[in-house]
Amino acid sequence: MTTRTATKTNSKAETSVATVKPGATTPFATRNDIDASHRGQLVAILNQILADLSDLHSQTKFAHWNVKGPNFIALHKLFDELAGELAEHVDDVAERVTALGGVAHGTVRQAASVSRLPEFPAHTFHGLDVVAALADRFAAVGKTVRAAIDATDKLGDAGSADLFTGISRDLDKALYFLEAHLQG
Q: Is 179 exposed, middle or buried (0-12, 13-18, 19+ CB in 10 A)?
C-alpha cells in the first residue's frame, strides 16, 4: 500500500506517492489500536500537512503585517482571523502526530524545508494582489488536505480523516472569504 501526499512542482501543490514505506514504524509506542504498520505512513502524511499549514500560517501573517491600500483595515483583520484559525489547525495536527507515536516536525525550519507552498511573492503588498496570492495558497493546501482525507481513511485512521475534513471545510470557507474580494 502506498500513501498519497503532495509535492511541490512548478510552485503548485500536487498529489503524489509518499516515500514512506508501508510498515514504517513510529518512534514511540502507543496503545492506540490503529494498525502499527500504518502509523509511520500516517505520521508522514500528518507531518506533511503540518508543514503546509505552518507555512500557510506564516504567509498569512506576512500578508496581515504588510498589506496596503484602501481596504487595509478590513484585510488586516481578515488575515489575522484566518491566521488564528490556521494556528489552531497546526496545533491539532501536531498533537495528532504525537498521539500516533510520532514526532511533530513543526519548527519553522522543519516546515519550510518540506512545505509544498511557493514562497509568498516578493513585493506584493497591494490589497487585492495580496488577496489573490493568499487565495492561491489556501486553494492549494485545501487540495492536499482533501487528498490526505482519503489517504488516512484508507490506512484505517478515521480520526485523522475527520481532523482533515474539518480543516478542509475551514480552508474552503477561508477561500470563499478571499475570493469574494476578487469577484466583486
A: middle
Q: Are 70 and 28 in contact (CB under 8 A)?
A: no
Among 101, 2, 95, CA closest to 49: 95
1-54, pLDDT tens digit by residue?
Answer: 333 333 333 344 444 323 445 455 667 677 776 888 899 999 999 999 999 999
CA dist 133 and 18 (Å) reads: 27
Q: What is the pLDDT of residues 62-121, one digit of tens each?
A: 999 999 999 999 999 999 999 999 999 999 999 999 999 999 999 999 999 999 999 999
Q: How far apart are CA 137 and CA 143, in angstroms?
A: 10
Per the CB < 8 A criterion, the answer to whether 22 and 2 are in contact is yes
- Nearest one of 123, 119, 149 to 136, comparing CA atoms: 119
CB 93 within 8 A of CB 21: no
What structural domains and CATH numbers belong to the chain? Answer: 36-183 (1.20.1260.10)
Q: Tell me the whole-structure pTM to 2 decimals.
A: 0.87
Find all residues with CB under 8 Å of 107, minimum gap 6, and list them: none
- Residue 105 has phi, psi (to 5 degrees) of -90, 80
- Residue 168 amino acid letter: S
The residues, any chain, with a CB within 8 Å of residue 112's CB and separated by 6 or more, are 51, 55
What cell was used for 65? 503585517
